[in-house]
Amino acid sequence: xxxxxxxxEIIMRLSPSGNRTMKQSHGMEFFFGGTELNVAASLASMGxxxxxxxxxxxxxxxxxxxAFVKSFGIDTSFITKNEHPLGLYFxxxxxxxxxxxxxxxxxxxSFANIEAGKTDWKKALEGCGYFHWTGISPGISESAYESxxxxxxxxxxxxxxxxxxxxxxxxxxxxxxxxxxxxxxxVGYSTIFIGxxxxxxxxxxxxxxxxxxxxxxxxxxxxxxxxxxxxxxDKIRIGVTASAQQTQGRALVEENYFETELLEVNPVxxxxxxxxxxxxxxxxxxxxxxxxxxxxxxxxxxxxKHTILGDINYSSAEDILEVMAGNxxxxxxx
Amino acid sequence: xxxxxxxxEIIMRLSPSGNRTMKQSHGMEFFFGGTELNVAASLASMGxxxxxxxxxxxxxxxxxxxAFVKSFGIDTSFITKNEHPLGLYFxxxxxxxxxxxxxxxxxxxSFANIEAGKTDWKKALEGCGYFHWTGISPGISESAYESxxxxxxxxxxxxxxxxxxxxxxxxxxxxxxxxxxxxxxxVGYSTIFIGxxxxxxxxxxxxxxxxxxxxxxxxxxxxxxxxxxxxxxDKIRIGVTASAQQTQGRALVEENYFETELLEVNPVxxxxxxxxxxxxxxxxxxxxxxxxxxxxxxxxxxxxKHTILGDINYSSAEDILEVMAGNxxxxxxx
Amino acid sequence: xxxxxxxxEIIMRLSPSGNRTMKQSHGMEFFFGGTELNVAASLASMGxxxxxxxxxxxxxxxxxxxAFVKSFGIDTSFITKNEHPLGLYFxxxxxxxxxxxxxxxxxxxSFANIEAGKTDWKKALEGCGYFHWTGISPGISESAYESxxxxxxxxxxxxxxxxxxxxxxxxxxxxxxxxxxxxxxxVGYSTIFIGxxxxxxxxxxxxxxxxxxxxxxxxxxxxxxxxxxxxxxDKIRIGVTASAQQTQGRALVEENYFETELLEVNPVxxxxxxxxxxxxxxxxxxxxxxxxxxxxxxxxxxxxKHTILGDINYSSAEDILEVMAGNxxxxxxx
Amino acid sequence: xxxxxxxxEIIMRLSPSGNRTMKQSHGMEFFFGGTELNVAASLASMGxxxxxxxxxxxxxxxxxxxAFVKSFGIDTSFITKNEHPLGLYFxxxxxxxxxxxxxxxxxxxSFANIEAGKTDWKKALEGCGYFHWTGISPGISESAYESxxxxxxxxxxxxxxxxxxxxxxxxxxxxxxxxxxxxxxxVGYSTIFIGxxxxxxxxxxxxxxxxxxxxxxxxxxxxxxxxxxxxxxDKIRIGVTASAQQTQGRALVEENYFETELLEVNPVxxxxxxxxxxxxxxxxxxxxxxxxxxxxxxxxxxxxKHTILGDINYSSAEDILEVMAGNxxxxxxx
Amino acid sequence: xxxxxxxxEIIMRLSPSGNRTMKQSHGMEFFFGGTELNVAASLASMGxxxxxxxxxxxxxxxxxxxAFVKSFGIDTSFITKNEHPLGLYFxxxxxxxxxxxxxxxxxxxSFANIEAGKTDWKKALEGCGYFHWTGISPGISESAYESxxxxxxxxxxxxxxxxxxxxxxxxxxxxxxxxxxxxxxxVGYSTIFIGxxxxxxxxxxxxxxxxxxxxxxxxxxxxxxxxxxxxxxDKIRIGVTASAQQTQGRALVEENYFETELLEVNPVxxxxxxxxxxxxxxxxxxxxxxxxxxxxxxxxxxxxKHTILGDINYSSAEDILEVMAGNxxxxxxx
Amino acid sequence: xxxxxxxxEIIMRLSPSGNRTMKQSHGMEFFFGGTELNVAASLASMGxxxxxxxxxxxxxxxxxxxAFVKSFGIDTSFITKNEHPLGLYFxxxxxxxxxxxxxxxxxxxSFANIEAGKTDWKKALEGCGYFHWTGISPGISESAYESxxxxxxxxxxxxxxxxxxxxxxxxxxxxxxxxxxxxxxxVGYSTIFIGxxxxxxxxxxxxxxxxxxxxxxxxxxxxxxxxxxxxxxDKIRIGVTASAQQTQGRALVEENYFETELLEVNPVxxxxxxxxxxxxxxxxxxxxxxxxxxxxxxxxxxxxKHTILGDINYSSAEDILEVMAGNxxxxxxx
Lengths: 334, 334, 334, 334, 334, 334
Description:
Six copies of one chain form a homohexamer.
Chain A: E1 3-7, E2 11-16, E3 27-33, H1 35-46, E4 50-57, H2 60-71, E5 79-82, E6 88-92, E7 101-105, H3 121-124, E8 128-134, H4 137-140, H5 142-158, E9 161-165, H6 179-187, E10 192-194, H7 197-204, H8 212-225, E11 231-241, E12 244-253, E13 256-259, E14 263-265, H9 274-288, H10 291-305, H11 317-324
């Protein structure tokens, strides 16, 4: 029962190398990722057993994506293929005062066209203790939303912990439904909520402040409206510049409030997937530690991800524990 | 009156470097191209004055595409932008007995969503002696088809030469109309046909053989059915292996038949855009030489393009004339 | 019963990029391979189910090797780790009249130090129809030899087909035993022999000629001395230059002699692993086709591998069937 | 009348990639630039209409330089070609306590050999509101000095604003005239002076201090000696280390003194062209904003340039306005 | 008598480029180094005359290593070759909170198999004023230890200064002897000790504290036990993060204590070889300056090395003097 | 007396990587070379002892060039430095029917400004048996011509063999003297002439045909006019395409005519320096073999150089002997 199932798009990131702008480039590095796959692969790197459910293109691009997912030892048996191109995005990496920029090409891709009603969720969730989803998936297309809902219903019926990162993105939600209405519905299946005041305000339409008091009020309101949620974990990432970031975690579990120290990362190698590293660290932490240590582990995972290229946190649990122990990285491990 | 107008998609090619398969790669080289843009940029490299009509994405990818087009001195004033992603394709480059492979992502892109009725074709065609189009554009979407038809009608009314490469691709034509019906209609506007027996059979539903006799019969039948066509030029490319190719041209102008010698290229650096190099060479040739010399020039342009990376023939007219003169490339130009 | 088990070193190849000599380089490309892993990964690429038994270094190099093996979906549960460095070799790639050169660093590596008696061969061979080994493994170290012998004994007892590529390398066999004595012993377990006159002469100490008559005599002598061998397949690779190669297959199955046409590959992208591609193609062929078609399939697999960088034949069965059908690679697959 | 004309060398920068020293490299990245072209291309990136006057080599190097300039949409009709090689320099990029180093090869290049008396300045300056020049050009050669003087005279006669960056470089001025004498003469044509106390002292032979009082005295003295100058803008760049820089602007317009906050950039991606980004930002600002906002815009342009590889500030006006608004770059623009 | 002899392994470093982890890479950059060669090459870069004694592999890898050493003008006549592979290590470069990691492959390499009794030490030490060694060499193998001891004896007999960096590494010393016993013996030959409290405690089995008092006590104890040592120089490197480091030097010469300011380096380009840069700087300093200035020079050399890729400090003496003079690197040297 | 002295420019080659045109590139590979240095470094690679006399720039570019020369073990004590930039050229590498193109920047460089009268030729020629020069050097500048003449006079006086490659290049000779007049004068010092009918016709103003008879007549005429010449060796390189070349040697020594077979190289990796490889092979051959074998060795050296990137033939004498023995390169050397 210690497997984890994740559901979401496998997306290709294309990025001019070495901080170049696209106009200055003739080549790009590419990485496979996607917010839920990032959680899956980061968990697998820590030693977790993971199944990922998705849909990729039936061409050599989709084949390459699958090989990447398999390289982590992730179970890919529930990933299907269709005739649509794999979703992708272009990233121009910023630096110091220059912000990074993203241009998407995903709304007509293979995942957006995943067929609802085709996944044997019962079988997929066999042996799983956690189902992780984010608010990106239901924002991509109606069939992605429906596929996810099927999974959530089955997971709830099987008594599986449902971890939710309700990442709201205004550039999605083009298929008719609004983020607000869908997220509210789907968050209703959750047992563990990974998000803070901004996310809660988004879902509840509330106006809580982001300080500790506001956070506590927001959490209590959320738990009242969604009684299945018993734990709330908040990741705080402060972008000082495009090259320097700070991360911190706080949580409300039952009536206990925890928070971590602020970790600084300078320089930042890659910001993408740091929230997913937090979620993966949290799930791993909840499986292996108590809630408070889990939060610290998640925050350390989030910090170390900033130093790794691509979407995935390749760190082992041991690497993360060292950051958590305050090892600043200044010595070489021989 | 010596300007040339081209109409078509600006597409990004993404290709793992150095003959690698995609599974073996973390990086890709990219090139902008597109069959009609290839003609435009090749003509500009020879010294031609060109306007290109198209639609790109309103993001940094589209901006980069525009900067590329401008670098040739091509007039981009008639290129619009919209919210859809730039079309693109992935290319795994083959070698020897291994064929190259392409995976497309273009059918929901910015060009596919070009708005008909928005181009001021009269103004765009001002000063132009040639309008070049191919069968790719109308295969992408209905609005691309309609935009093209507007342009063809205006060009015909203005008495401009219309060069047609009726490239039929079975993986297009997903929007309701068939290639056969549309190409037949649009070829009706042409004055110069760039294609051979296969293309004529495709359009007329005929069964001519591909030898000289068949070619002559096919041409005569085409000219009878489409009386506006007064010249037919055929490019023959023989793929010996993925690394060795032969090119040859033949033509029927009025009742005169010409053909060129067979040019061999080994090794092939890049096969993409070699047909477009032929078309560009032909148009340049028709502007500067007699019909027979134009055919030889087009064939030499096609041959030299095989040695240049990317979609565009960067060769100058002088470079092409040297290949035409039989200079095998064995000496260094200091 | 259609799984295949392979046993052998996972070795890292390091090679200056772009045909440079090492003195001219500051960077190298690396590839994981190893003759038996090449067979495993090539089979997996064709769609086969494969288990690989080996031993890697317990560091980030070994971890990377494992991730590579997993990316093919190969079962890695029987791969162990130890404190010795992963074996590796440097390759300077030749061209035309310049031969390629290899410098090895493998004789004190993790595979050379694999512990005999530690593999649960019964469990490892569960569900397997084929056990593939080569003469490289027993040449590396005594413990590799002993581990292999354990596996061969178990496979024979379980009635599994044993395919043998008795690759004799004079730069191995430094641990006390001679290649001749060991290969003769281990070939005794084989049921399918992949080798020709040179290999048979090596093992039997005979002097057969390499023409068809010599081949037939050599085969009959081998079958007489090793009665368990019922099929012999010979791969012939003719190195015209470092950049041009020819491949051909011939076989004696029972009393039937087959041979294939000569396939030419020019230019050669990578010669390493072409014999392994033949072996993989053969095993796949024997599982899916009759013996003669299997030979043709193996030869086509060998040919196409010459066009792929690295040690592995990434081709699908479909790709290989096209080469077998005489498709020269001259067309682009869209 | 809103076009801008710039005059100056198009120079190639060659730089070992990734902070390597040249001894450690086998490859270099190259960029086209040149202090006045940097202003031109930065202005074009913000949306300005620019003409650049220069002279390049009549070979494929010069052709490449021209294609680069055209890619910004800059008017290249007044750029000539000659038989001399394009000027270039080598840059070893420093880091932290290690300073960057430059080695020049420009004094016998195509721009140094530009022919005076050949530019139709009247036509070139048609539609222009600004003429921008720097003290680099007249330091390269006598004919560059003379060409520039012709342009300045015409611009003055046409009542065009003349912006002057009197960059004095001691490694130029090898052709007989001294920087002091020439700069004094040419600054006499200016209406807007971009420089501070050091530059004024250089030109006037004065000894003003660099604090605010010194700056004000120096400005007043300059305006007295060169009455055509009505605005003085000073860019201050403080190099903390090779990897961390601070920028600030101050100005005296009529009798009004302005200054901006200090902007920090850490890490610095590229220091070259940051002064040119200031000048371009200033000209754009003067065309679109009031003088004080123009100064802030110029300072923000200078800061963001430090994060962009190469000589050119590729930022749009919108990008610069965000930096000006205090956006630290810590968020991703999706 | 101003030549310097160094003795030690020439080792190849292999590192994924651009901060990637090895799993994310298909290519590696390589560098030749080795702690004593780093001293040799850094000294040669400053202008010193150096001989290096070592043993490399008799293959193209060893040839490349030799060409690298020769490129510095180092005398390689006393470097031998054998049949064993060149030692190497893999380095994953960390960043910010992520530590760098090393995996070695050296214990069965060519240097580990250097033959004792084969070097003509008298001839090798001809003209030398300094013999530099470190504690790495005798930790690799017994024959390396014996070779070194022969050299030390000869040097002592010839009255040559012996500089010792007793770098103790727990992952060496696998051949039977312990680091403690051997280092104690060999340090007995030294005249100049480059190390601090930790190293002295290691050798003497003492427990001095690392503050100034502890340092002074430790030094005095060492000088008492090893009377040949007349100067002790300590390099202090403080790893703030993997990307930010501080360096400081202190010394006890006779009864005089000196110390330098703390130099900060941020960002760090490469940490490897910074201690060797200190040693090289020190030897150069002792040859050209007084002891105190030598210490400052060594510390500046150590600081600037952090900004240079690879193992070697390529800086000239002039470059180092500038850092010593407080030049922060913020200006470009033209 | 077996050392070889070479005199000539050290020039940097800059080339877009991977067959790209310069317009398509943002990076270039660089190589140091120069026709006489190529001979020097190729000889050193075969095992020869070489001194090179030249003049480089006094900056980090010149330093890098020197480090490159030293890496071959070449004696650089007679190389001076001055304030002028190192000569360089850009090379666009052609392929198949596309010719390679070169753009030079050398006529005002450091070698062009070498000071005559400053080389101690007596000392430089100490221990030398051969002095090698080509017609490139005296074509660059008057001082280069004068420096060379000083050397030739000293060599003649010392009775040293003078090998001459009278490479005439029409794009040199800009300083007043004509190639014809100077070459005729300097060839007068030669004892061994490396050239064929074209070169003899150039020097003598004759019109011999290039067949065997013509060659014999031309040789006899040359020997009559320049009696010091006792051996003539002709390298014939036939450029089939930019990617396929053939090489052959013929010679007249006393009255003996020899010729070699035609060696084919396909594909050609790099044509530059193949003539220099011939000259180096010849000198090495003359030192170690009889004249006829020397010619075959030179031809094989010329052939194998076509497979090596850059200007230098890195092959060992053993590598060349294998090509000479007809080893086609088809096998891997392990």
